[in-house]
Amino acid sequence: MTRDPPSIPQPAVPRHVAVIMDGNGRWAKQRNRPRAFGHRAGVGSARRIVRACHQHGVEVLTLFAFSQENWQRPPTEVSLLMQLFIRTLTREVANLHNNGVRIRFIGDHRDFPASLRQLMANAEATTFGNTDLTLVVAAGYGGQWDIARAASSLCAEGLPITPENIESRLILPELPHPDLLIRTGGEKRLSNFLMWQLAYTELLFVDTLWPDFGEAEFAQALHWYGGRQRRFGRVPEGV
Ligand code: IPE
Ligand code: IPE
Ligand code: MG
């Protein structure tokens, strides 16, 4: 084991919620609109879920915004997504900061536009001291990349490849692993998200497309989580 398992029963509210925000393209298609329309609507959902996490007392929210594999989408869609990130950061960071949100980015950002990288660095620096909610945005992220990077850093230092050592070299080693993963859009797969960190996460797959996912759906997800019994390999108490 890499960490002491939390004692059972679990707190009703997950400390860390991770979300695969999927279904923007299909949402737009249903409305005979271009995929961009769905991505823009998806930003509204992200805003609502950040607010809901804050209200429910979730400590960390990780949003999967752009996977390494998403680079394989048509260049027009990729560049549209980059523009949308730029616009969203420009508009939202001050408000997030005023609400005590700390923003962090995980992923390989080397191929991102320089202006976007600058906005990301500024957002992290501005919100560094905030403690109400940590918002982790996974962009250019791949779970296998994260693990491989950890392993190669251990190799470079001549350290043994143990679970504890890998854990300590992952991109955000100090954050708790996700307690709850929500994937919208109906697919039941992880698409190379937090492959290591999801080892004992409760997984919730919902058909709702991301732009339709709002406070009510989020509250339902928390309710579902509250009914899980997390055992971490052990037997339930009282057995
Ligand atoms: C998720 O929505 C957003 C990103 C991957 C950036 P999709 O764009 O994957 O939407 P669908 O799955 O095609 O409906
Ligand atoms: C996963 O969605 C990535 C993000 C939500 C950023 P995809 O739509 O890219 O996943 P696949 O291709 O259906 O597995
Ligand atoms: Mg998709």
Describe this structure in words.
There is one protein chain. Helix content is 42%, strand content 15%. It is α/β, with parallel strands linked by helices and 239 residues long. It has one domain: Undecaprenyl pyrophosphate synthetase, CATH 3.40.1180. The chain has a six-stranded parallel β-sheet, sandwiched between helices. Helix 4 links the parallel strand 3 and strand 4 (133-141). The longest helix is centred in the middle third of the chain and has 24 residues, at 75-98. The structure holds 3-methylbut-3-enyl trihydrogen diphosphate (2 copies) and magnesium ion.
Can you summarize this structure?
This protein is an alpha/beta fold. It has 7 helices and 6 strands, in the order E-H-H-E-H-E-H-E-H-H-E-E-H.
Secondary-structure content class: alpha/beta
For this structure, the CATH topology is: Undecaprenyl pyrophosphate synthetase
Strand content: 15-25%
Q: What is the total number of structural domains? A: 1
Helical residue percent? 40-55%
Q: Which cofactors or ions or other ligands sit in this model? A: 3-methylbut-3-enyl trihydrogen diphosphate, magnesium ion
Task: Name the shape in a single word.
Answer: globular
Number of helices: 7
Query: What's the helix-strand series?
Result: EHHEHEHEHHEEH
Task: Please provide the count of β strands.
Answer: 6
Architecture per CATH nomenclature, i.e. the level-2 architecture: 3-Layer(aba) Sandwich
Chart the SSEs and their pairings.
Layout: E1 16-20, H1 24-30, H2 35-56, E2 60-67, H3 75-98, E3 101-106, H4 114-126, E4 133-141, H5 143-157, H6 163-169, E5 180-183, E6 202-205, H7 215-226
Helix pairs in contact: 1-2, 2-3, 3-4, 5-6
One 3-methylbut-3-enyl trihydrogen diphosphate is lined by residues 20-22, 64-67, 70, 187, 189, 191.
